[in-house]
Amino acid sequence: MSIALSIQDVHVTLGHFEVLKGVSLDAEPGTFVTLLGASGSGKTTLLNVIAGLQQLDRGHVLFDGQNVERRPPRKRKVGVVFQSYALFPHMSVGDNVAFPLRAARRPSVERRKVVQEMLELVDLAGMVNRAPASLSGGQRQRVALARALASDPGILLLDEPMAALDKQLRERMQVEIKRIQQQVGITTVAVTHDQAEAMTMSDQVAIMHEGTLVQVDSPENLYRRPVNEYVASFLGEANLFPADRGGPLALDAAGQATGTAVIRPEDLVVLAPDQLGDHWRVPGVVRLLSFQGSRFRLEVVTATGRSVVCSLPPHTDASALVPGSEVILGCGAPDRVHVIHRSDAGDALEVAA
Amino acid sequence: MTDSPLRRSIGWYRMPILIIALLTSLVFYLPFLVVVTTSWTQTSFIIFPPEGFSLQSYTGVLTDQEWRDAFKVSLRVASVGTVIAVLLGTLGALALTRLRSRAARSWIRTLFIVPMAIPPVAYAVGLYSVSVQAELLQDNLALLMLGEALLAVPYVFVMVSSGLSQADPALRPVASTLGASWPLIVWRVDLPMIVGHMLAGAVFAFAVIFDEVVLSVFLTPIGVKTLPLQMLTASQEELSPQLTAASTLVSMLAVLLLGGYSLFSNRRTARARRLSRKAATA
């Protein structure tokens, strides 16, 4: 059973601080949505609103079209995995997983059967009688996941699921959680500040910034077509140049700009003197060249002090690119340049002011 | 133990520290040792150093009807008082975790702890005026039990609160999202975590109540004496070695109770540590 989630214009104030300022979000049944944002952007609060652990001032939360904002957490049929996993320390792994079924007064035969199924799902079949304290971090997380899924909830909520794991385990568990989510086919909302994690697991990523959702889109669209400069520089490295309708402008023509061009480092190339032509280009001085395995990362400073980052293929002959040498960068893939036009709303506001 | 980094780093400083520690423990235990030795004197009055050795004052205390009655009364008062104190203290500590407002939490916590500093005589006089008004409460131990319980509530409250504060604050929210109603959360999540702390609170409460004399002076019915009251009157009438024998016995009881408890809880923490070490290697 998997539900469609709809959040409509939710406002939450904690003390005097407006944590959520009118957030709306929709998720189709079975999709994996990640709330991605810096700390303090309100993403965990939004998760708590969905779980029913946070009262909202205004707005609606709908599960399959039904208002649930007045429903207490225990009646929402949500499965939550907390950052700390919050396993009951005095219960065995099996009892932890069986807890939601016990709360629902299911018979013990069914409890045992579901515990077995759930532990098999998360690959911990032999661990029924172990104490949570005797498990490793990754195992604890999987127990928490099994417990959250045991009562067949309509939606799964993950609060910073990888925060307590070390880096290697993190990458494994991202794949593992995605597998389990797809196998169960459950609508899932996760919270993270790690963009790689968000990209690996999610169908949709919702970028949060200071209590609002800035953009909700697939990971690729977010990267290729960010709606504003914040999203562009939040996800991956981005070079922002002044632009008009036609594309990026030369740096000395910034005054005519009507928008911002986003050019990713991998779309920039170093131009040889005979390649110049009349294409768009940026002259600059090499500040740093570093080899990072799958690429060279070249950092160039323009005459106006702007820092530009360029990725070069790992087999590039980089001997000429010593710090201090002058280079000219061009765009290798003009069709992939994304221009953020200043929104009409923004202009209107400026006029009004 | 032979050459730990701590010992090496402390160096010669450790000699004065050791001496001060020894002196301090002497100050703690010397009076007690004096009391114990006077209890085995052969004379009929308290004298130090004791003359000869006999257990006659012990047999005296243990066979004397008055002492035995007083012991039984104290046992009853302490048992009932402890149960009430554990109940109230635990409920208070649990209720505190359910409060959202931080200001309210810290106020109520203070209000629960402050009674430790209020002199028992204040309770005694207050409850005494109540007993004068209510005939139902005269000629029985109910009011004394209640009063003693009130004195012990803060100890239980502090113990249980510390137990609750060690728990992951996400446990209750997670239980509620898993469908648990509040009675189930209290029964299956809160209580199992604080049983040990409730026990510790009970041990302290019992020790506090068993030793308490001021309330007994005011609130025991005529002709009934608690053990501390009996000791007090005995000390006023004659300084017989029976008094020190009784206090030795009471002290032994306290040592057994508290010592037994700390042994028990040490074993528990050792087990927990073993478990987490196993987890680290797994």
TrEMBL record, chain A:
Residues 5-235 form the ABC transporter domain. Keywords: ATP-binding, Nucleotide-binding, Transport. One of its GO terms (cellular component) is ATP-binding cassette (ABC) transporter complex. InterPro entries: AAA+_ATPase, ABC_SmlMolc_Importer, ABC_transporter-like_ATP-bd, ABC_transporter-like_CS, Mo/tungstate-bd_C_term_dom, P-loop_NTPase, Transp-assoc_OB_typ2. SMART domains: AAA. It is an enzyme of class 7 (translocase). Its EC number is 7.6.2.9. It comes from the Bacteria. It holds the Pfam family ABC_tran. GO terms for molecular function: ABC-type quaternary ammonium compound transporting activity; ATP binding; ATP hydrolysis activity. This is ABC-type quaternary amine transporter. It comes from Micromonospora endophytica. The lineage of its organism: Bacteria, Bacillati, Actinomycetota, Actinomycetes, Micromonosporales.
Automatic annotation (TrEMBL), chain B:
One of its GO terms (biological process) is transmembrane transport. It is a multi-pass membrane protein. CDD domains: TM_PBP2. The keyword Cell membrane applies. Pfam families: BPD_transp_1. GO terms for cellular component: plasma membrane. Keywords: Cell inner membrane, Cell membrane, Membrane, Transmembrane, Transmembrane helix, Transport. The chain crosses the membrane at residues 12-34, 77-96, 108-129, 141-164, 198-223, 243-264. It is found in: Cell inner membrane; Cell membrane. Belongs to the binding-protein-dependent transport system permease family. This is Uncharacterized protein.
